[in-house]
Amino acid sequence: MNDGPTIIQQSSLPAAALLEQLRSSPEGLSAAEAAGRLTSCGPNRIAQQAQSGVLQELYGRLKNPLNGLLLVLAGVSWATGDLRAAILIFAMVVLSVGLAFLQEHRSGKAAEKLRAMVRTRATVLRRGSGWTEAGIEDLVPGDIVKLAAGDLIPADLRILSAKTLHVNQSALTGESLPVDKSDAVPDGATQEPLALSNICFMGSSVISGAATGVVLRTGRNTLFGGIAGRIAANPPQQTSFDRGIAGFTGLMIAFIVAMAPLVFLINGLTKGNWLEAMLFALAVAVGLTPEMLPMIVTVNLAKGALAMAGKRAIVKRLSSIQNFGAMDVLCTDKTGTLTQNKVILQYHLDFEGEESDRVLEYAYLNSYHQSGLRNLMDEAILSHARKPEHVGHIAAFSKVDEIPFDFERRRMSVVLRTPEGGLLMITKGAVEEVLAACTNYRIGEETGTLDPHHLEDAQREMAKLNSEGFRVLAIAFKELASPLPVYDESTETGLTLLGYAAFLDPPKDTARDAIAQLRAAGVAVKILTGDNDLVTRAVCKQVGVDADDILLGRDIAALSPEALGAAAEKCAVFAKLAPEQKSAVIDALRGRGHVVGFLGDGINDGPALKAADVGISVDTAVDIAKESADIILLEKSLTVLCDGAIEGRKVFGNIVKYIKMGASSNFGNMFSVLGASLFLPFLPMLPIQVLTNNLLYDLSQTAIPTDNVDAEYLTAPRRWDLSNLTRFVLTIGPISSIFDYVTFFVMLHVFNAWTEPGLFQAGWFVESIVTQTLIIHIIRTARIPFFESRASNRLILATLATTCIGAIIPYTPLGRTLGFQPLPALYWPILLAMGLGYAVLTHIVKTWFIRRYGV
After folding, report:
1. pLDDT per residue over 764-800, tens digit each?
2. Which of 333, 378, 623, 740 is catalytic?
3. Is the model's pTM score more than 0.70?
4. Separation between Cα atoms, residue 833 and residue 707, nearest integer Å
5. Contact present, 553 and 578 (Cβ < 8 Å)
6. Which of 84, 304, 401, 537 could pair with 487 in a Cys bridge, judged by C-beta atoms 3.0 to 4.6 Å apart?
7. Beta strands 524-528 and 573-575, pairing class
8. Residue 291 gets which letter from DSSP?
């Protein structure tokens, strides 16, 4: 942390005073001084997030709450002598953890953040040695460095001298155009560090020109390092998905804590065998736990990851797929997402605002013949004018001289020899500066004198274009009577204004439709950009985003957290944001109950990517953005995000099917266990029988990831609602208990199984496995099952196979090993009648529940 003068204060000091403050000199630091400062300040490195090893990744998967619960139950089973149950539960955990680990490990880790940059070398001035090469990590405050085109800015530095220096700060600000930098001391009005014209920041790069500068801050004390340090810190403790799993696990633990001791006491007191009662109570606890939930979750998420890969999206963290489905707010930057991330020449207008080929021709001549910086707007002019209908006789012009661009004039001129042999000076630059040098205007072949009325008209035209988000350059010319010995700033007087060139980073063709699709899917789109509000408003209007009310970064800084939350809820567009303000907006939205996704690709997007429930980046993003992201897109497209949201809802829907069916069935079974334990002279089901029942049921549900999801379920974000899930379990669970008690009555009074525990247990085992396995077809849809909605073929086959296996087991050697007796023939028509009654009643209650509480 830097406790010295602020970078704004250092930008306003005279160069000599600044060097004195830094204890440096125009000749730089000596080697000894630099070595001493390196020892005290530390290397010029950026904080990096620790990379997890294989064992750490495995542990990260293993500490899932449900896996922890299952391991505890396995340990207790082992301690009480039920080795088969312990091994079976442990194998389930290993399978679940292994599958999750392989999926996430295969997706790979992003390249180490900024590693390539910190290995780069810089040209540094050493007192007594002159200019020399040094590693970036060896730079210290007070070092004087040289910058040239193509260089990365190695630290936060103040420019001491510069020649046509243009810097790309897009990774820090989101601004797509290069920024002019100079050694001129700002007037003090600027309070935003990134807007300082004489400060260059680590993480940016030199596009054109050359400069020398003195290092102000290095490593973690740089603006870049501060952002990277926040990103390297731990992400939010829990996402929406994590909270849902944790809440459901808590619900299961509460059931176990309530039921298992009660079952233990009832069976111990009524049967007198306390060890047997303990083993049975443990089996009840295992039965109440959805043993396969970690595997079901992982398989569902892995299937979603494969589906996303088919849509050119790489999933780094599996849980982010479900968060996609729960996402109801998508925050995204503007450049390259809504726009094409390239500048095009939209209009070439004369003084009256009409299209003019001469304006295009003169703009082309200026851009083509200049030898200085050829920026994105020059490229846009050249690309546009190369079309055959515009080129005309341009090739006949030859260059005589030029007046380079500088930061005070903010314009540049070229002097050309015309095909007729005359001299023509063409000037292009910022509108205000070009107008200041003009005395006349040209419309067609008519020339007139500029007066205040004309200037007001010009200003209105510029304001109109600016309000539409255009970046505007003015084009002027001057016909020279004879060659001059020197062409300089004094030549740029008495110009004739020809017109304007208006540029735009155009929206993508797919942006409007993609935003409409996201809205239709219940996802609000909010724009978070570092770009200015005029350009942002224009782009947003074109793609259908409400930009009437834009919140600016300077306004956010003055808001309390509560006020920011209210503003974030209301506004759809945020402009001129600093990196930490993007994450503040996301935190505010999450604090108001939203599940937030964020799409970004620059260093300035890193904190926001970490703050979001699901962070999304692109394969062309800076390393730190890819490291922070949960999902990486191979193309920066909102359409892919809409597909991802739908895929997430499918994943969530299928996970919830398992949870609802398993929890409600197991909950109902436990009530049946309690009742049966009170009046039976033997255990209602042996511990190994309970576990086998649950294992068969769980294996049948491994096909759930392949199941179809009703179209109406996909129309809105889906998130964990523990209270609704609890209501569902408490409503549907007792229905299974009703038919369990009917089974008890049949086994005891029709088949007289009072003295044949093997027969009773076989009858309840088969009824339980058949009903709870087939009931998934009722619970999986809000529609009428089989008629209006049919499960996937794999799920149908899995449930039929499981019921057949469960029905056959009492007649096999395995059944005898488990303690079962064969069932009489009359049992089967009775079971069929009970199954049909169970299905009809469950569907009726389910329909009532959905109408009252929702899905």
Report:
1. 999 999 988 888 999 999 999 989 999 999 999 999 9
2. 333
3. no
4. 27
5. yes
6. 401
7. parallel
8. T
